[in-house]
Amino acid sequence: MRTLTVIVVGAGIAGLSTALALAADGHEVIVLDTIKEFTEVGAGIRVPPNSCKLLTEWGVDLGLIKKEVSRGNRFVSWKDKVLCEIPFSDDEFGAPYHFIHRSDLVEAMRKAAEKYAKNITQNTPLGLGTISIFTNSRVIEYDFNEPGVRTSGGEWYTGDLVVVADGIRSLARDEIIRAHHHPPNPLVDTGDVAYRILVPASPLLQDPDLTVRKLVTEPWATHWMGPEGHAVGYPLREGELYNIIIDVTHRTDRGKSVGEAEWSKRADNRELVERFKDGWCPIVRRLCGMTGEYVKWKLAELERPLECWVHPSGKVTLLGDSAHPMMPYLAQGAAQVMEDAAALRAAIFSQLSGHSLELSESLEFSISSALSLYQSSRASRTAYITRNTQVLQEWLHLYDGPAQEERDRLMSLRNDERNPVFWASEARRDWLFGWDARKIGQCQVGDGGKHVGGDIGGKGGKIPELPLFPPPESSVYPGRDLRGRLGIVS
Ligand SMILES: Cc1cc2nc3c(=O)[nH]c(=O)nc-3n(C[C@H](O)[C@H](O)[C@H](O)COP(=O)(O)OP(=O)(O)OC[C@H]3O[C@@H](n4cnc5c(N)ncnc54)[C@H](O)[C@@H]3O)c2cc1C
C-alpha cells in the first residue's frame, strides 16, 4: 500500500489512537500537542468492548495495568432502591469491559506509540510506520490545501493528510464549517456540571455493611439517580481506588459555578456534602463526605450533530471530540474516538491499497475518497450515541413524581426497548458493543433515531429505536429546548 505522511493535531486519546492505528499500516505520523508533558486528570475511564478490542489490536498492553473487569451497570434510586441491573458477560463481544485509571490508559498508549519511535523502528523487523510526538507545539494556523499546520513556535509541518484531534474546543472545526458554507454550529451548555473524584477504597472495604464492601469487591458501575443529579461509582486498580463521577445541574450546584469562559475548576467537598445532604441515601452522602479536593467540569456539546467533518479540500479531517463531543452518560466518548481512528485506518487502506489506487486519478483523490468514506461510516453512529446521552440525561435527573414513577417502571423491564437505559435492550447493546469499527460501511441510523437496519458487526439484526424522552413537562431543563433544537415533535 502507498503510505502517507500524516500530521495529527492533539495527543489526547484521539490523537494517540490515530497515530497507533495509522502507524500499524506503515504511515509516518507526526503528532503535535500544546502540552509541555503528559499529565492526565486523576479519574477513571470505562473502556467498553468496542474500544477494548481496538486497543489490543494496536498493541496497547492492558495486561500490565491494574484494572477491573466490569460486571455490568446498576441503576439505583436516590433512596437506594435497585431498579435495574444489566450484567455484562466477559466474552460476549470479543473483549472485556474494563474500568481503568485514565493515566494508566494513556501511559499504556504512549508506551505502544514509543515502539514506533523513528530511531527504533527504522532498524527493526517490524517494518511498520513511525510515530513522532512533539509536545510544546500549539497549532495556531492551518493551510487546508497544502495541507499543513503552523505552530506557535513558527514551524510549518506539512503532509499528505492532517487529522484534527484537538478536542471539544477545536480550532479548525469552525473553519471547516465555514468552508462548507454551513450555518454555525456552536458549543452549547448541556445544563450540567461533572465532578470527577477518586478516593482510596479502603474505608469502603472496612465498612461493616456488606453492600458497601461489595461496591469495591464486585466491580459494577452503580448509578444513583435523583432530582437534578446523579452519581456513578466504580472501583479501580484492583480495588485500591473508588472512582466517583457526580453530575448535577448548574442551578443546583452549590459551589462557585464554572464561569462562562472556564471549562474546569478546583473545588472541595463541602459543596458536594451540602448539595446531597437532603433526601439522598446514606451511601451517596458517605461518598460525598469521602472526597477531598476535586475538579469539576462544565459539560458542553454541539448545538446539533456536525454535518461535515472533512474540509472541502479533502485533505483535512476532524476526529474525536473535535467532531462529536458528547456527555459522558453512556461512557462512550473515548470509545467513539478510538472507533474513529480504526475507521480512518480502514478507509485509507481501502482507498490506497493496490487496486483502488491504480484505478483512481491521483493520490489526492484517493485520500479525499477515504475521508468521505470515513465520515460517512462515523457521523450517524456518533450522532445516534450523542442523542442517547441526551435522552438518558433527562431520565436520570427527574424529580419524584409521575414521570419518575414511570421511569422506575420502565427501568424494571428486562430486555425491552422501552427501558430508558440504552444498554437494557439486548439489540441496542449488541449494536453498541458488537460494532467493529474496522469494517467500513456498517448500518446507518436514520433521522430522528429511526433505524434503517443493517448488519451489526457480524452479529446480524437491526438498530433498534432509541428510548423516548420523558414527557416535556417533567424536564429539569425547560429553558434548554433540546427537543426544539433536535426537531422533536412529541
Ligand atoms: C466526566 C467525564 C467522564 C468521562 N468518562 C468516559 C468514560 O468512562 N469512557 C469513555 O469512553 N469516555 C469518557 N469520557 C469522554 C472522553 O474523556 C473524551 O471523549 C475523550 O477523552 C476525548 O479525547 P480527544 O483526544 O478527542 O480530546 P482531548 O482529550 O480533549 O484531547 C485534545 C488534545 O489536543 C490538544 N490540543 C488542543 N488544541 C491544540 C492545538 N491548537 N494545538 C496542539 N494541540 C492541541 C490538547 O492539549 C489535548 O491533549 C468522559 C468525559 C468526561 C468529561
Automatic annotation (TrEMBL):
Xref: InterPro entries: FAD-bd, FAD-dep_Monooxygenase_BioMet, FAD/NAD-bd_sf
Signal sequence coordinates: 1-19
A matching Pfam family: FAD_binding_3
Keyword check for Nucleotidyltransferase: no
Gene Ontology molecular function, alphabetical: FAD binding; monooxygenase activity
Domain FAD-binding: 4-176
Keyword Flavoprotein attached: yes
Keywords of this entry: FAD, Flavoprotein, Monooxygenase, Oxidoreductase, Signal
Protein family according to the UniProt entry: Belongs to the paxM FAD-dependent monooxygenase family.
Protein name, as recorded: Salicylate hydroxylase
Source species: Lentinula detonsa
